[in-house]
Amino acid sequence: MIFSAIFIITDGIFVGKGIGSDALAAVNITAPLFLINTGVALMFGIGASVVASIHLSQGKVKVARINITQAVVVSSLLLIAYAAVILCNVEKIALLLGSSPRLLPLATEYMHWFVPFLVFSALLSSGMFFVRLDGSPNYAMVCNIIPALLNIGLDYLFIFVFKWGMFGAALATSLGYIVGALMILIYLMQPHRVLHLCKVKLSSKSLRLTLRNTGYMCKLGLSSFLCEAAIATMMFTGNYVFIHYLGEDGVAAYSIACYFFPIIFMVYNAIAQSAQPIISYNFGAGQPDRVRKALHLAIRTALICGISFFIITFLCRQNIVSLFIDRSCPAFDIAVNGIPYFGVGFIFFAANMIGIGYYQSIRRGQRATIITLLRGVVFMLIGFFVLPLVLGVPGIWLAVSLAELLTTLYIIGIYFKDRFMVHRL
Asked: pTM to 2 decimals?
């Protein structure tokens, strides 16, 4: 997960240092498109891996192979269509995402060379689940490491040596994803693997089964899609509000916080995923004390990480910002002054990720979905549109933190309400 975050952050550092703060803002404008793409990939990847693992445990190997093949084919077709729609309306979509006339040429240039290759990014994200399920977690990790290292080298070559600007930044990222996706495909096309791709039948019965199976996969993986969509909403709404109050420099400053955010998300997600099987197993075994013990351990671990991240962000904010842009840029001071407000949310975000993972683990998927929507949409919109009116510029930075705080209070409320109802019964 850390290497996945490095893949994203590397682009920001090279774009900010090699092209400028406007380019950094332009990339941030287009980021929601990538997050939606990743959300679709994770939805199919997680959903298909759950279904395939159940079939494997029952000895239905052929059915498991069909499941992952259906996921790869259907998600790829959907995302090719998604990319085609974007490419036919590049300028309109860039403006819809909040681009100003000044950022529009940079945003459209980046989209022209990045969007066509989104399907490879998705194949890498979803294929990792299938490779791990097949018993090759080390190969899955290598499929992330090699593209990340390739991206770093090509970013430096294309931006600093060849001076290709936004075209170079987009091409470096795209080539990294293509290599990672090809590594996944090479693995899944080897017949001696337990899980490998198989021939797709085009009969009407097979198509109906494919639609039914992929629909079930999407249902299982919906919460993962919503998590990515929530981050996309944060970036989309933030771009609009920042450009309204602080112009393009404000968006550039905000983009630095958005690039730093994936590392935090990856760590909390790793903790939640680690706790999930432990909680699920003991919940199924009727061991509520063990469930609570595992939950409390996960919360303590996440909170320690959250407090540490906030302290590091506060003390090292100038160093963090200087990784992306020069001190001479107007966006530098905006970011340095604002990021500590943004960092307060890291503490509450830790508890929220564990809460969402907990309700998924005890088969309360609907509640996990409600929490995700409250955190990523309802509370986020309230923060972005109300706090700036009350607190000014600091209110914009505090919007995400407020959303995380309100979500934490909601989770605490429903958790103790459930405990109270159990004791009454």
From this structure: 0.80
Cα(229)–Cα(103) distance, rounded to whole angstroms? 23
Gap between the Cα atoms of 55 and 81, Å rounded:
30
Sign of the CA dihedral with 33 first, then 265, 146, and 64 last: negative
Cβ–Cβ under 8 Å, residues 219 and 364: no
One-letter identity of residue 177: Y
CA distance 359 to 64: 27
- Look at residue 78 and tell me whether its pLDDT is greater than 60: yes
Q: Assess whether pLDDT exceeds 90 at residue 362.
A: no
Alpha-carbon distance of 289 to 68, in angstroms, equals: 37
pLDDT: is 205 or 95 the higher one?
95
Q: What is the dihedral of CA 368, 242, 103, 256, to 10 degrees?
A: -70
Token output for 85:
């729609």
* Interatomic CA distance for residues 405 and 400, integer angstroms: 9
The string of DSSP letters for 218-269 reads HHHHHHHHHHHHHHHHHHHHHHHHHHHHHHHHHHHHHHHHHHHHHHHHHHHH
To the nearest 10 degrees (0 to 180), the angle between helices 2-18 and 21-57 is: 160
The set of residues, in sequence order, having a beta carbon less than 8 Å from that of 128 and lying 6+ positions away, is 45, 140, 143, 144, 184
Segment (H or E) for 40 = helix 21-57
pLDDT at 203: 80
For residue 256, give the amino acid letter. I
Q: Is the four-CA dihedral 318, 348, 234, 406 of positive or negative sign?
A: negative
**End-to-end CA separation in angstroms for the chain:** 42
- DSSP percent split of the chain into helix, strand, coil, nearest 5: 90, 0, 10
Kindly report the average pLDDT of the chain as a whole number.
89
Q: How confident is the model at residue 277 (pLDDT cuts 50, 70, 90)?
A: low
Separation between Cα atoms, residue 141 and residue 123, nearest integer Å: 14
* Residue type (1 letter), 363: R
Q: Give the other-Cβ count within 10 Å of 386's Cβ.
A: 13
Q: Which range, of 253-262, 267-276, 368-377, averages the lowest pLDDT? A: 267-276
H helical segments located in 58-164? 61-88, 90-96, 104-114, 118-133, 137-155
* Rg over CA atoms, the chain: 22
Task: Express each pLDDT in 382-416 by its tens digit.
Answer: 999 999 999 999 999 999 999 999 999 999 999 88
